[in-house]
Fold:
Amino acid sequence: MIKFFLMVNKQGQTRLSKYYEHVDIHKRTLLETEVIKSCLSRSSEQCSFVEYKDFKLIYRQYAALFIVVGVNDTENEMAIYEFIHNFVEVLDDYFSRVSELDIMFNLDKVHIILDEMLLNGCIVETNRARILAPLLILDKMSES
Amino acid sequence: MVMSSLKLQDLIEEIRGAKTQAQEREVIQKECAHIRASFRDGDPLHRHRQLAKLLYVHMLGYPAHFGQMECLKLIASPRFIDKRVGYLGAMLLLDERQDAHLLITNSIKNDLSQGIQAVQGLALCTLSTMGSAEMCRDLATEVEKLLLERSPYLRKKAVLTAVHMIRKVPELSDTFLPVCAKLLHERHHGVLLGTITLITELCERSPAALKHFRKVVPQLVQILRTLVSTTGYSTEHSISGVSDPFLQVQILRLLRILGRNHEESSESMNDLLAQVATNTDTSRNAGSAVLFETVLTIVDIRSAAGLRVLAVNILGRFLLNSDKNIRYVALTSLLRLVQSDHSAVQRHRPTVVECLREPDASLSRRALELSLALVNSSNVRAMTQELQGFLETCPLDLRADCASGILLAAERFAPTKRWHIDTILRVLTMAGTHVRDDAVANLTQLIGGAQELHAYSVRRLYSALAQDISQQPLVQVAAWCIGEYGDLLLEGSCEETEPLQVEEEEVLALLERVLQSHVSLPATRGYALTALMKLSTRLRGDNNRIRQVVSIYGSCLDVELQQRAVEYNTLFRKYDHMRAAILEKMPLVERGGPQADEEVKESQEGTRLLEPAPVPTEPQASKLLDLLDLLDGPSEDSQQPPPVDSSPEGTLIHLLDLPCAPLTPAPIPNLKVFEREGLQLNLSFVRPPGTPTLLVITVTATNASEGDVTHFICQAAVPKSFQLQLQAPSGDTVPAQGGLPVTQVLRILNPNKAPLRLKLRLTYNHYGQSVQEVFEVNNLPVETWQ
Structure:
């Protein structure tokens, strides 16, 4: 089960955070800084899976943004690794060549997309068209 | 003064513009004040904007709990845009511990039955993220209804909400169980994915569900087969050539749970697993993910032997892959396999050892665990070499594990004692501070037991110590060895090491250095002081230097050292004649005994405190030592058994006085209890002053007759409240005409101070006849039990 999903940039600023298991608010910032520290200290030749306390972290770097997913022991790390890439591809599709600023200024839309893909820590939908369908309808409604 | 509230974009811009943390906090505080004001009396149309800003601020880590009620209001509003932000806020800000969360239940209920998919979806999403047990119970029926809706969009969400509900309220599993079978027939991947997750959750929770779902194994196999084969190939869900790897992985995981420990299901899966394993394209990550899951499944179920070999080979191939991620998962799975398929994994040992040299910490940790699991008696030398090489370069957090792993492996598979000692020495030199506490005790035990290696070990340890006195365990062992076997060190040559000419002065100087160094722990200094003391008997030169050191430490601030120094000082001054006996070589201690430190003390104290009763046999000595164990230890004062006379000079002197002083203030008269044909039995009583409940009886059998008494056995019985200990007699023959009497010691503990009653039974042969006598001892003097 996925415990949390984070997008943090290299300076340690959180761009997106979603917790599927309750964590106290001051513990969250601590968690995020520690997580980003352990990811930053790794070079590109090292593998993307890190052990942190009692979960496993799977991270992937896209330009200056790190996407980090914390899972418990039962998950298949490589599938989650693939999922992160899937997520980024969906964002890319929606925002046409997504960048960090897009995510910052459209945080609610990114949340909607993430909610379509992950529900309660489990993967629910991975097909790009189906994920974006409700969002596109919403956009059309708010335009009109 | 009302400042115009910022739009979310502007707020973000401002926060970005803040140069320092303090500035950012200022901006945010201003904005929060604004938000609070607008919540109180603001325009309901723009409320969602305020909440959106609040959520952004919350993400940055600032408190936002005052927004909770707003979320509720927004959820209740009919506009979608309000609901959207409201539900998002609920997911982020509310959780079980807040009191407000129950208030949403009603809104969610309404929304769930509303009929607008988007709204229902929102409600389901929120429910599944933060629904508490009560909420789940209330809303279970609604969710169940939604499971049967036509729209797959809702169904996939409803299924996962059901998963969450089951996690919170396990009793609901019964409601959701029947639906699963129907849902499995879906073609929609999203729903299928959710259903598989639901079934997995159900099976994990109850064995009854597990049995129920074993029936669907063929169906699952069918689904997976269509996914994998080219005819079922659909471009919709394919990722880099693999059709819906996420669904494949989930199905494989479920198959694993269903097939565990179940022959039949495992059998039906065998072909499929082989097919997946061979057909999946692993050039991209998606394929590798599926393959990895397949391997895990093969390992866990009761698969055919050929399939397991296939799995190990796939993992071996993974190990050689250049992608680090793949190597990592391969190492993890091999670790799981090593228990059951040890020989198969052994084949890949060289590759595993290669991975030890990886710069990546996660990989090297896995490689370390796996290497330690692969050590066996045939490869122990090579592996230990590799592991020691690793120990030198590994990161600090792995050092402790590596060191203890090497020591454990050495213990189990050491080919020779000398190799074992060498290995431990090397580990102590390299990573001394990281070894476990009992390593010192183990090593001293080992050296003590290997008599032929005493000279060798003491030399090696001496050279190691001369180079470096900072590794505490090493220093402790070295000090102990030098103390014990100092004479061997100075003797001259030893074939196994290079000739080392060591002068007495050098040895003493080294030990003094250890004593004075500030890196030495108090325990280490204790070892060094004791070693110095022992050397006073082993070395041939005079002891002035040692005496000086010992007297200096008599006023040391550390109490433990001070006590030792004072005792040793006294040993030099008053009891010089006993020094050699006390400081003799130690006998081999049983494994698992107390620290070597305390053993030394005990053996010294033990020799001082032995009662002058005949031949203290094993139980008595260990009892004494046990007593001392409890009373010994770092506390220095009093508590030393038994102080005879209260002398003003301190308790230590009492101890040393003991063997010479009379044992009892008033001796109890002897008692003659039996006489027959020249054989006489006498009892003598001793009540040691320190233990008022103990009575020591010595039975003496004398023979004044013409014939020998043979096969003499004396047995005793006491009332239940007493404890009797019969010790071995000095012999079983009493020679004729006043020959050497047979003595036997009885120890009786009388905790209740009850009147003593004693029954004796004698059996012996005299004049060719076997005699048996049973009698009670009358007129026991009162002093024996009062």
Chain A has one domain: 2-143.
